[in-house]
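Format is sequence with structure; example below:
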Amino acid sequence: MAAVVEFPDPEVVAQIARLEGAQARAPVTFSWPKGIAFALAFALAGGALFAGVVYATQMRLGIVSIVSGVIAGIGAARGGRSREAQIVGASAAAIGYFAGTFLVVVATVGMDRFFQLSLDQIGQVCWVVVKATFSSIDALFLGIAVYWGWKIPRAR
C-alpha cells in the first residue's frame, strides 16, 4: 500500500496567510547612544576583570577574556536587538579585549612608571607587548569574544 499525502484545504491556508499578514509587527529600533554606552561600559568592565585576574594569578587566562564579549553583547542588547546592536556588541567586545590587554601591561609595568612615559613611548610599549604576547590562542579567544558580542544582541 502506497503512502497517501493529503494537502490542507487551500482556502484554510489562504485564511491563515491573511491573518498572519494582518498582524502588526513592532518595528525593530535601536538606540545608538544607549547601546554604545552600555556595550562599551560592560566591555571595559570585562577588560578590567581580565586584567585583574591576570594580575592576581600572574597567568593569562584567555577564557576570562570571553567575558568581555558576553557582557558587551548584553550591553548592546540594552539598546535594542537588531543588526546595529550586533555590530556595536562585536566592536565593543574587541575594544574590551584590547583594553584588558592594555590594563595588563599597565598593571605589570606599574601605574606610576607607566604614566611617566610620553604618549609616543606608551604606544610603543603597548605595541611591543601585544606583538610579543599575542598568539594564535589569543586570536581564538578574541574571536570567541567577538562572536558572543555579535550573537547575543541579535534580533529574535
The first helix runs from residue 10 to 22. The chain has a mean pLDDT of 88.
